[in-house]
Design a protein that fits this description.
The protein is of the alpha/beta class. The chain is 48% helix and 17% strand. The chain has a single domain (7-131), classed as Rossmann fold, CATH 3.40.50. The chain has helices spanning 14-27, 38-47, 64-72, 91-100, 112-131, and strands spanning 7-10, 32-35, 52-56, 82-86, 104-107. Helix 1 (14-27) packs across helix 5 (112-131) and helix 2 (38-47) runs parallel beside helix 3.
Length: 132
């Protein structure tokens, strides 16, 4: 797994951003940026190429699902890997995220190993897709 890729963490909770930063550091990622909402995240995505977006579902004014849809509808951003994080394991949320093009889904609470496994799965699938 290439831990040099830049990651954008999107969450309206400063505490959750801190937790994700700490977990990502434990895994070996050092280039981690943050955004507190969807519009800020989109602006950052248009300025810098990220290897992964990790976003909370429940945010205002734009949900993580809305952010994912915006990314997937943007020609320059649509291939950006995206992991959704949520405190709710509702089946309809998982289905909606999959339909919108999410690469993986994490339900809180989780630890570094779970996060690492989810990221490895996304990167492995992306590598297969790029070589196919």
């Amino acid at each position: 797994m290439d831990t040099s890729v830049p990651i954008l963490v999107v969450d309206d909770s400063g505490m959750m951003i801190s937790i994700l930063r700490k977990l990502l550091r434990q895994i070996g990622f050092v280039d981690v940026d943050e955004a507190v909402d969807g519009p800020t995240a989109l602006a950052q995505l248009r300025r810098k190429r990220y290897g992964l977006v990790i976003s909370d579902w429940n945010m205002e004014p734009m949900t993580g699902l809305d952010l994912l849809r915006e990314i997937r509808n943007d020609e320059a951003l649509k291939r950006t890997p995206f992991i959704m994080v949520t405190g709710e394991a509702k089946t309809e949320h998982v289905i909606a995220a999959r339909r919108a093009g999410v690469n993986n889904y994490i339900v809180k609470p989780f630890n570094a190993l779970t996060l690492k496994t989810k990221i490895e799965t996304v990167f492995a699938a992306r590598t297969v897709a790029l070589t196919a």
